[in-house]
Protein 1
Amino acid sequence: MTIEELEQIAKNVKQANEKFDYEINVCMDLACASQGADKLKDALEKAAAAGAKKVLVRRTGCMGPCSHGPLVRVDGPDDPQERLYRKVNASHAEAIVKSLGGAPVPDLQCNLDEHFDKQVRVVLENAGYIDPEKIDDYIARDGYKALLTVLTEMTPNGVVHRITESGLRGRGGGGYPTGLKWGTVAKAAGDVKYVVCNGDEGDPGAFMDRSVMEGDPHRVIEGMAIAAYAVGATKGFIYVRAEYPVAVSRLTTALREARRHGLLGNNISNTPFNFDVEIRLGAGAFVCGEETALIASIEGRRGTPKPRPPYPAASGLWGKPTLINNVETYANIAPIVRNGGKWFYNMGSERSKGTKVFALTGKIANTGLVEVPMGIKLREIIDVIGGGVPDGHTFKAVQTGGPSGGCIPAEMLDVGVSYDALLKMGSIMGSGGMIVMDDTSCMVNVARFFIEFCMTESCGKCIPCRAGTAQMFTLLTRICDGTGTMDDLALLEDLCSTVKEASLCGLGQTAPNPVLSTLRYFRNEYIDHIVNKRCSAGVCNMHAAHSEIRSEVLA
Amino acid sequence: MPLVAPPPLPSEDKRWKIVNGTMRKNGFARHALIEALHTVQSSFGYLDDESIRFVALSLRVPLSQAYGVATFYHYFTLKPPGKHTLTICAGTACYIKGADKLIGAAEKHLCVKQGQTTPDGQVSLMVARCVGACSRAPVILCDGEVAGEVTESQVREQLERWKAE
């Protein structure tokens, strides 16, 4: 496959699409699919075939505002803007097809201009526009152009330089500079090197990586291939959660198609570069998001982390230099190569460049996927893009970073989103889960929920994490059931610092964050539970408040 | 190819051939352990001693390591699932929107705890960490089929429907 051939495919697709008067795109991501999007697509195809106009009905990945799904977008000559329809079901198919050439169907119109205006789409640029199982659709939107440009016109060093220049930082949560990581692996000695994509999206409440893998799988593969060229690897692995069967099947199809087009395999684009990718399934362990545990899992062992150094960049998979990046990081690579490092560098805030995809969920009107430039105020994400807290409730906190992150209160909402600002507030960027809580959520209970999660997911290798999280859970249970004392609170705080300082890997080191951040901003709720035996949100039932039996703490 | 010949298939059951196929595709390499166990679970529904032993011997992995992997990962189950499986998502978004109430309602209705199967083998009640459908929380999976914005009464209705079968 050469660039000319690639351009020919893109041209063919465009010519084929021009034969149609209209394109009807149906979102078939999990949220819409669970509400009958497949039946809707069949009905639209049937109605379109019976109608007079030439219509292309296409299935696409996630369009974004999932709470309005199933979503349908009509592109055609009727109006300058695309028409977005919400809450569409199969019975609306005929009305939608009939409306082509005239006014939009009134009851279904989705007015989310504000929601979309604040967003900048880089990673999600194709989401909602391509059929994820058709490589030609991806190629028609400049797909694989970056890879072939890199192979024919750039040196591996030049690629590393461009990524460094862009200021891209790891999107898995830690925020390590991507260019620096690539440079380290590129410089590492050894003939055999590996490239790994971390698609083990274990953070509950986050689904960005799933959407990218399901909606635009080739983007991830292209990013990995460029990375492999830059660091000198010939083999890649995508580690995906087994809980995401659709992502696995889409990636399998995408890999097959890429091989068939000569975009993976030996002598790609008639250059000496060889590269292929294998999929590895996770098996439900949160700790496997940690890079050394992920390596252990790919090697077929229990997912327990190892002390670093040596870092995977020096000694990773089977002891070879290994580059591990998150799905969203790889998804950013092709646009950076195409548009230049400066283009990316000019987006975002001072030390956090580019955009970030967030999964906005919880007590908020517009739940779904959003992509915003770094530096945007949290308030804008929640009130404008998210549409605020519904049902007359008031905003209490937004949780970012999952079980490793923290809860950010209302008074901090005017802070711009960046790795450093979130860290300063006691939370982390994380992989991009953003869960909004209102006055019906008890912050002590939320802290207990996360500690229970970390306790269950602790691999058991190091004692601070294995025993510490269990004792923290018991202490929080006491406070939630009304038997907690101020001594328990002091012990809890003490344990937080022990677990944070002494744990082996990121799971344990960040496990106390939900407790520490709620203690920092919502200490009065803890005191209310302990002293007044009262849960102002009405979540904890305090059933044991007057009994003599207390949960046993061994610490 | 392995130096030692792989063990014979445990029985005539065609599903063993599928399991063996996965291992062959990976050249009977040790790192194919998790892949092989995935194939066992998707073919047989769960992992038992016989299947873990067969996979371990075929891949020349110590039994302790194979059993360690089978019990370490939550996705693997050592107990046969019921005829139907109700999985309730307990990810953060679902929890905030009341997944614990759904779990409570299902436990009360079925008289089993999460992770257990009813004595008649009809329904297994499972709790998932997150299925990635957070925007429609709370979410349940009825035999793998995702349903969003679920209420307690909908959970009870679904369980009644299965019971009536």
Protein 2
Amino acid sequence: MATVTFDAATRIYPKSDRAAVDALDLEVEDGELLVLVGPSGCGKTTTLRMLAGLEHVDDGAIRIDGKDVVNLAPRDRDIAMVFQNYALYPHMNVAQNMGFALRMAGKSKAEIGERVRSAARILDIEDYLERKPGQLSGGQRQRVAMGRAIVREPRVFLMDEPLSNLDAKLRVATRAEIAALQRNLGVTTLYVTHDQVEAMTMGDRVAVMKDGLLQQCDTPRALYEDPINAFVAGFIGSPPMNLVEGVVEPGGVRLGSAVVPLGDGVPSLPGTAIIVGLRPESLWLASGDEGILATVSIVEELGAEAFVYAQLVDPNRVADGLNVKGNIIARVDPSTAPGNGDVIRLGVKEGSVLFFDAKTGDRLRRRGE
Amino acid sequence: MTLQRRYVIQAVGLAVLLLFTVFFFIPIVWLFLAPTKTDGQLLTQSPFALGSLHTLTQTFHRVITYSGHSVLIWLKNSAIYSFGGTALAVVAAIPAGYGLALTQFIGRRLLLSITLVVMIMPATALVLPLFLEINKLGLYGTIWSLILPFGFFPFGVYLAYIYFSSTIPKDLLAAARIDGAGEWAVFRYIALPLARPIVALVGFFAFVASWNNFFLPFVMTYDSSQYPLQVGLQQLIGSTASFNPANFSAGSSIVVLHRPDLAMAVIVAIAPVLIVFLFAQRALVSGMLAGATKE
């Protein structure tokens, strides 16, 4: 059991002028499963490898249980890692793979055998102990990689996108298994993924990174409801939050044909641009003269819900890259879903709108928010 | 393109290939047929005529018993020099290639460049300075004068470097380091067992290079009893009557060899390389890395 602290930890790759991880401050509590999430190149895997000792730390400190490990070799850190590609030793069978760390630690054959069997029992891979990795399916290899980590009973687990090579169905099942296993074992875990759904479903807390900088670290619910900036708002949630740029007028901000009232205390001058953040579930199909006029591009029917992708009539510029081809996405009841090409009016649920500075992307908060 | 024209092009292509095949096979076929014939038959009969088994055994006997079974002594010498040299070359080249490919240290790039440069230097260029060095060390005339130089095998280092840098996933070594393995253990327990194909390949090339080497043993040995087979072959040529008519006037007491005997000696000289190749080839084609990482 252990705590992990990143204290202004920085990594600058040779021949690069930008830090891959820039003065990261992060605390992982004892027994916690903390998920690092972000787009490719955001520095999440580098962060993990810095903790593992596979990546040099250029500045700052990384502490496990208060002790700086920056100058320790990987083998002296008492950590176990599950790699994205599993990195199983191809010339060893499953039992030898799982027991390798114990063998390196000089444990007796009897103890290694006992601990390997017990870990294999937990992961339900007892039948494959004599097989080589090449004879296993992707899912089985993933379990062996997990087994190799848990058999050591380390202070910290590191997981680098361990599910990304599994098919969608297996990924969902394994996701729940790993989360349950981590909770049972109670080992402090740092988990890296680019998949925000994985992050939200597994993490006790989720740290969102972008361009080497930590954006926000909080519980999944807090990230969803109270994002610190437009990036976090757009990254967390599926489908993503609609981020629409509008111009402030007296009485609110104009979005296409409608004016959305600004919250009390949101600092904004008439004529300035502002980003309005609308979750798909904050929009509803309005009738009469209410709401924002939009033309339906496509409707995705998912059974319990339907997503309407619509273009604003008299559109404002929709913030780049965060939404699908300039569409605004609304979640509606499938029984009332409009048809393709229909002109609809989208109402906005009061109090559910977030505002962001158009230049910096920072959140503009209402008074008391 | 009409069908007919395509057939013509194919036929011409086939004919060219066939011509080259015949061109390169004729010397080999001739070599293997020559020991079955007597010297006279070799001159008068068609190059592809098959002699007799009786002649073949006689030729073999003459070669083996030449000058007190010298050929067997040379074979033994060649084997000692080649296996010793190969062992040293493998022991030096495999860890060197691994180090250059998968570890970080100051001067790594420089060493790699030097390896490439010395690889293209002809080995014979170094024979004279090597001779002086070996002589100074007092090793001239010992087997070490022919084994130690093979510890320097840049081609093997380069092959090992290419293999390690292209086929062993870096994560595999990272996993071992996290699992508590030190640098030596990572090499010993992870990289080396996965390097069997390259050990076989480097070993094979080192063996062939040492076995076929002529100039180095020619310089480093002074007595017929120390010769490896390649240098011995030269002595055999000197004992072949038709190449040295002046030495073998009627009534000379020197053992006389003939051209078919030389062909037999050459076959004896290349046979071990073929045998070693058969063993190395098995290890070369093993798919050791299957299932290491998910591609």
